[in-house]
Every structure is written in C-alpha cells, then in structure tokens.
Amino acid sequence: QSVLTQPPSASGTPGQRVTISCSGSSSNIGSDAVSWYQQLPGTAPKLLIHSNDQRPSGVPDRFSGSKSGTSASLAISGLQSEDDADYYCAAWDDSLNGHFVFGSGTKVTVL
Amino acid sequence: QVQLQESGPRLVKPSETLSLTCTVSGGSFTSSTFYWGWTRQPPGKGLEWIATIRNSGTTYYNPSLKSRVTISIDTSKDQFSLKLSSVTAADTAVYYCAREFSGRHIHHMDVWGKGTTVTVSS
C-alpha cells in the first residue's frame, strides 16, 4: 500500500483540464518537495514536475504542479491524446532514517 | 547528456540473490549534488522505490525491503549496483536505475535508465 494516495483514474476529452491529487503526511509532502512522473505504456518514467511546481526543460507548460500542506496536485490543461499515460507523485519521507515514497499512480485516459 | 543502463541476469531462481548493475555515462557521477538509486515496477503495478546511495557511500533503503537489499557504488567504474537476496515470485518486476537530484528538502529522479525485466522462476 502506497504512502502517498492518488485516485486510480482520471479522464477527459481533448482540450479539457484534468487534475490529479496526491495526499501524504507531515513526514513527506509536508516537509519535502513533490515531484511528478509520467509513464507512457512500456517505457520508463519521465520527470514531469519537480520542486512542487517546476517543469524540466522540454516539458510543455500544459503541465503544472502545486502543493499545499500535506497535499499536492498535478494539472493538465488542454488535454492531448499523447497525455494518455500513468502519473505518479513522489516525495522524500523523513521518517525511518529517510526514504523515497511514490504515490499509487493515476491512469489518465483521453476519451 | 547523462545516460543510465541497467545490466544483469533476466532470470533468477527462487531463494537466490538478484544482482543488477547500472552504468552511468555522460558525466555527473562524482557530483555531490546527485544520488543514485533503484526503483522497481511489478507487472501491472505501480512504482516502488528500493534504495539510494550517495557517492560518499551513505545508503537509504525502503523499510519493507531493507533486510534483503544492498546497494553499492564503484566510482572508479561509474557504476552502482543492487543486490536483493532470498527472492520470490513477488520480486518479479522491471528494475530501473535512476539519478536522483538532492538538495535542501528537494529530491527527485531526473534521469532514468530504460529498465530491465527480471523474472523469478525455477
């Protein structure tokens, strides 16, 4: 069972806005920055958002991240067919000598 | 441009030890800004972080796997390795190595290997 909780699925039609939530605790999201990863079928995860709201070079500005307290969210605006993928949130957890934790993952379907 | 490549046996027998190596090319291996780690993904399931190591040798382990996992680093070869002992079918997964950026209250995996599928079966 994942330490960070995400909804299992989300969907939208092309052009719509989709938001994915990520709920944690004071030892992870509450004290460390959140990152988000996109995983297309059969491929390795790709860093999508880091430091709560920063996009690496090459990531479209349709993707945005935010954090408040012990929760975070990823928004995809102007949904496109190539956004059909799995999305994971993650953060460092300060408990038990420190360890990285991933969210349970959200499958985004473009209808 | 940094690249990571996993290598190791694709098939491991139950109760034996899984051993994988990640080779880093393109620089940054000796930078103190970056850590190095392993994550796995069982078939049809989500991502599970396994372990992380710093160039200094400091290690961090998933509490649920800690008793069976060893991560090590060889800076002379730009490689780091994973050993998982007493494997069972539940350890069948795609294993990814990744570079981890580490700063004050900031940790994320910014470069990933393509992954290698390891099957535990007799």
What does this structure look like?
- The complex is a heterodimer of chains A (111) and B (122).
- Chain A is 0% helix and 44% strand.
- By secondary structure, chain A is mainly β.
- In chain A, strands 1, 3, 4, 7, 8 and 9 form a 6-stranded mixed sheet that branches. A 3-stranded antiparallel sheet of chain A has the order 2-6-5, with no helix packed on it.
- Chain A starts with 8 loop residues before the first strand and ends with a strand.
- With 122 residues, chain B is mainly β.
- Chain B has no helices and 11 strands.
- Chains A and B meet through strand 3, strand 7 and strand 8 of A and strand 5, strand 9 and strand 10 of B.
Average pLDDT of chain B: 95
- Model regions low in confidence, pLDDT < 50 over at least 5 residues of chain A: none
Strand count of chain A? 9
**Structural class of the secondary elements of chain B?**
mainly beta
This entry's quaternary arrangement is heterodimer
Biggest interface, chains and residue tallies: A-B, 30 and 24 residues
**Largest beta-sheet details of chain B:** 7 strands, mixed
Strand proportion of chain A, as a percent range, falls in: 35-45%
* SSE string of chain A, helices as H and strands as E: EEEEEEEEE
Are there runs of chain B of 5+ residues with pLDDT below 50, and where? none
Task: Tell me the major beta sheet of chain A.
Answer: 6 strands, mixed
* Rg of chain A, Å, rounded: 13 Å
Which word captures the global form of chain B? globular
